Amino acid sequence: MYLACISRYGKSSGLNSFGMMWCNGVMTAPAVLASTMATGELAAVGTFRRLGEFSFEAVVVASCALAFALNYAVFLNTSLNSALTQTICGNLKDVVVIVLGFNAFGGVAVNAVNACGVAVGLCASFRYATLKFKVR
Q: d(Cα 101, Cα 41) in Å, to the nearest integer?
């Protein structure tokens, strides 16, 4: 639904990807702020003992930059193509992440059970994507 809204409103509003991201951020900020206050996460951040350390701040800034880049890529891909294209790209990304994860991190034995589990998960993801767009 999120991707379909991005696609529809991106084309009808005339906003570019940055404008849509800004509107999305402005509209969701009150809900995010309310939920972080209600769950106590906002207070926990204020009392975090390493809050002022450079290494922590560098990791937070890098995390924010990566999140921005990912959101921009999703908004751009969805507004230029379609929600279906973004869903397929998401599934392909999952395949790449799984393959890289198996190769990059030690301690994971690639055997028939693991391969079957990954295959079942990917097939279910692809099937869900096809069913989701047939229902529309």
A: 30
Report in angstroms the alpha-carbon separations of 121 from 63, 77, 95, 127. 27, 24, 10, 10
Q: Taking the alpha carbons of 82, 87, 90, 95 in that order, is the dihedral positive or negative?
A: negative
Helix axes 2-13, 54-80, angle to 10 degrees: 70
Vertex 87: Cα angle to 93 and 96 (nearest 5): 10
pLDDT tens profile 6-61: 667 766 777 777 787 888 788 889 999 999 999 999 889 889 999 989 999 999 99
Output the pTM of the full model.
Answer: 0.59
Structural contact between residues 29 and 94, judged by C-beta atoms closer than 8 angstroms: no
